[in-house]
């Protein structure tokens, strides 16, 4: 059993499937391919919040707070100023082209 199978058994997805996401367009807009496990999760559940704790962002969400593209732009802007701070960058972010996707 995969982690996704276990999640579906524990928390069944909505009866009505979420809207289909244009993965290729989203990948181009974000400048990176989306991970396969993320794609499966969004295809099953769509956007939203699990137990008021875990936010599942989706491309082109009708909810601004759950829109992956909008939140990525916002977080990119916030992290741009991080290099000017006196804190040491996490090792993974010092690599050329590295970035954080929400």
What secondary-structure arrangement, pairings included, does this model have?
Elements lengths: L2 H8 L12 H8 L5 H10 L2 E3 L3 E3 L11 H13 L22
Antiparallel strand pairs: 1-2
Sheet with the most strands, sense and barrel status: 2 strands, antiparallel
Task: Work out the helix count.
Answer: 4
- Count of beta strands: 2
The sequence of SSEs as H and E is HHHEEH
Q: What class would the helix/strand composition place it in?
A: mainly alpha
Proportion of strand residues: 5-15%
Distance between the termini: 27 Å
Q: Kindly state the mean pLDDT as a whole number? A: 84
User: Which word captures the global form?
Assistant: globular
Q: Please compute the radius of gyration using only Cα atoms.
A: 16 Å
Q: Strands across the major sheet, in which order?
A: 1-2
- Helix amount, in percent? 25-40%
Count of the separate structural domains: 1
Q: Which regions have little confidence, pLDDT < 50, spanning 5+ residues?
A: none
Describe the overall structure:
The protein is mainly alpha-helical. It is built from four helices and two strands. It has a two-stranded antiparallel ribbon with strand order 1-2. A hairpin with a 3-residue loop joins β1 and β2. It is globular. The two termini are 27 Å apart.
């Amino acid at each position: 059993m995969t982690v996704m199978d276990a999640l579906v058994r524990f928390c069944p997805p909505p009866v009505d499937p979420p809207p289909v996401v244009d993965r290729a367009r989203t990948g181009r807009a974000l400048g990176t391919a989306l991970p396969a496990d993320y794609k499966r999760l969004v295809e099953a559940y769509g956007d939203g919040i699990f137990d008021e704790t875990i936010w599942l962002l989706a491309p082109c969400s009708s909810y601004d707070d759950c829109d992956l593209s909008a939140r990525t732009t916002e977080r990119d802007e916030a992290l741009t100023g991080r290099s000017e701070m006196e804190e040491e960058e996490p090792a993974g972010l010092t690599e050329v082209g590295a970035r954080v996707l929400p």
